[in-house]
Design a protein that fits this description.
Blueprint: H1 29-40, E1 72-75, H2 81-92, E2 96-101, H3 104-118, E3 123-127, H4 133-146, E4 152-155, E5 163-164, H5 166-172, H6 176-181, E6 192-193, H7 196-221, E7 229-233, H8 246-253, H9 260-275, H10 279-282, H11 289-308, E8 313-318, H12 335-338, H13 340-346, E9 357-359, E10 362-363
Parallel strand pairs: 1-2, 1-4, 2-3, 4-7, 7-8, 8-9
Antiparallel strand pairs: 5-6, 9-10
Helix pairs in contact: 2-3, 4-7, 7-9, 7-11, 9-11
InterPro entries: NAD(P)-bd_dom_sf, SDR_fam
Biased composition (Low complexity): 22-32
GO molecular function: oxidoreductase activity
Length: 367
């Protein structure tokens, strides 16, 4: 995206009246957008994430269990990449794993591949579209009926937030160090298109979908008999040193001053600036901006949750620069390596860390 903007001092406006983001739960989008537009005089932000009819929720055949398993885990986005490896590695540790995916056919195929390749039976599939309220409720009902509790939630589902010319990207042959440093931002402008619609989809999936899935399963996590664990997948792009806006960067370090309403206001401001091509002038991240913002607020939400639920172990983990579809296979680590941090935190002892950011298997500094 090109920016023809005069240089200005970045402003911080996280506490302003939020623009309506799509897929709000309280009221239908049309009602909420009209209400906010009336109050603020602003035009409502258009929805692009699909909130259409609920998909069919079917569960494939499960092996019979005697009694309730010691540990039950849900992994979102579990049909490929890091997600399927988290499922495999947890199952190898004796955890009963519910692999979830939006696409039923792909999810079932993933379960069958794990069962056959690793000789594991305590892994099942349940359809989950984290953006669909009916789908979230269906999963929660199944777990409540079948197990009566949930012990581990790995929020792994996510999207990249941009449209990509993958052939052109491969032709650039960008060094992984350039990716990790963020210095590739200008190199990729010719092959990566950062559109408003993709940004909305990214924020909806990576933050709102994660939050809503977590909220739907929290009552079951509170019933855990082994101590609940929530692991949120984040990214190196989430580290606050990558936030150009100094005032906002310092504000984000203080998780105690933030809640979901303030996060929503900030994201709405970000989308408004993106729509008006003011990202650079306002001091937002320029390397994969929507993805970076989505992961920054995932980190923040992780700390908010950990503060509210001190009895749980709630952390976020950057899996490393893993070769998966979300980064167009530009990474250098295998999915097996990328899964280790999430698995380690899922199996952490009851006195383990909470409200922390991990860079793979080591505690890092995101804020």
């Amino acid at each position: 995206m090109s920016h023809h903007l005069a240089a200005t001092t970045p402003s911080v406006r996280p506490s302003s009246t939020p623009l309506p983001l799509p897929l709000q739960r309280a009221r239908p989008l049309s009602q909420r957008a009209n209400s906010v537009a009336t109050r603020t005089g602003r035009k409502p932000v258009a929805s692009v994430a699909a909130a259409a009819a609920s998909p069919t929720h079917r569960v494939d055949e499960m092996s019979e269990h005697q009694g309730i398993p010691e540990r039950v885990a849900v992994v979102t986005g579990g049909n490929r990449g890091i997600g399927i490896e988290v499922c495999r590695q947890l199952a190898l540790q004796g955890v009963t794993v519910i692999l979830t995916a939006r696409d039923e056919e792909r999810g079932k195929a993933a379960v069958e591949s794990i069962r056959s390749e690793s000789n594991l039976s305590d892994i099942i599939f349940h359809q989950l579209d984290i953006l669909d309220a009916g789908s979230r409720a269906s999963l929660a009902r199944h777990i409540e009926t079948r197990y009566g509790k949930l012990d581990i939630l790995v929020n792994n589902a996510g999207v990249g937030g941009v449209a990509v010319d993958q052939e052109g990207l491969r032709a650039l042959n960008i060094d992984p160090k350039m990716w990790l440093s963020g210095k590739a931002a200008h190199l990729i402008e010719s092959v990566i298109i950062q559109t408003y619609d993709e940004a909305v989809k990214c924020l909806n999936t990576n933050y709102y979908g994660l939050k809503w899935a977590t909220e739907a399963l929290l009552p079951l996590l509170k019933k855990s008999t082994s101590g609940a664990r929530i692991i949120n997948t984040t990214s190196l792009r989430s580290e606050l040193q990558r936030m150009p806006n100094e005032k906002l960067r310092e504000s984000l370090r203080d998780a105690n001053s933030w809640d979901e309403a303030r996060i929503e206001a900030m994201l709405s401001e970000f989308l408004e600036d993106m729509k008006n091509e003011r990202l650079e002038a306002a001091g937002w991240p320029m390397m994969l901006p929507a993805y970076s913002m989505s992961k920054m607020v995932v980190n923040l939400y992780t700390r908010i949750l950990a503060r509210r639920h001190p009895e749980m172990r709630i952390n976020c983990v950057h899996p490393g620069f893993v070769k998966t579809e979300i980064n167009w296979n530009t990474g250098v680590l295998s999915p097996e390596e990328g899964a280790r941090g999430a698995v380690m935190l899922a199996l952490a002892p009851g006195d383990g860390p909470t409200g922390c950011y991990f860079d793979q298997t080591k505690m890092g500094e995101a804020w």
